[in-house]
TrEMBL record:
Keywords: Membrane, Transmembrane, Transmembrane helix. It comes from Nitratireductor aestuarii. Residues 89-124 form the DUF6460 domain. This is DUF6460 domain-containing protein. The chain crosses the membrane at residues 53-71, 100-121. InterPro entries: DUF6460 (IPR045594). The keyword Transmembrane applies.
Length: 126
């Protein structure tokens, strides 16, 4: 590129003043910078280069698909299994809370009258 006039930056890349570029070079440089930024952001999000992630996902999908086929599972079986497990935990939790509330009410039927009687008797003494 003509008239770069750049300086060395901390990362070893050359920082170029866009003012020295022709309009076409400025547009091209900005487009390259934007593409590099998009690829860099995508790589950061995925944790690796996009092609490596695609290859890893294909291999893992193959292995998981083979195992699911061996056990005659479908994605819906897994979905319904998880849903049923969550619902069982949900209902068991509220049953436990119901029992817990029942214990509190039974205990309160004994404790509250004794507490009130003790407060009344203590109030009379003062």
């Amino acid at each position: 590129m003509a008239g770069t006039g750049g300086v060395e930056c901390a990362h070893g890349r050359i920082a170029v003043a866009l003012a020295t570029f022709t309009p076409y070079e400025q547009i091209t440089h900005r487009a390259q910078t934007r593409q590099e930024w998009i690829v860099s952001a995508l790589s950061r999000f995925l944790g690796d280069s996009p092609w490596r992630v695609v290859i890893k996902l294909l291999l893992i999908s193959l292995i998981v698909g083979y195992i699911m086929h061996m056990f005659d599972w479908t994605p819906w079986d897994i979905y319904y299994g998880i849903r049923d497990a969550v619902m069982d935990i949900w209902h068991a939790g509220f049953d436990a809370l119901g029992r817990f509330a029942g214990y509190i009410l039974i205990g309160a039927m004994v404790v509250v009258p004794i507490f009130l009687l003790a407060r009344v008797l203590s109030f009379r003494r003062n």
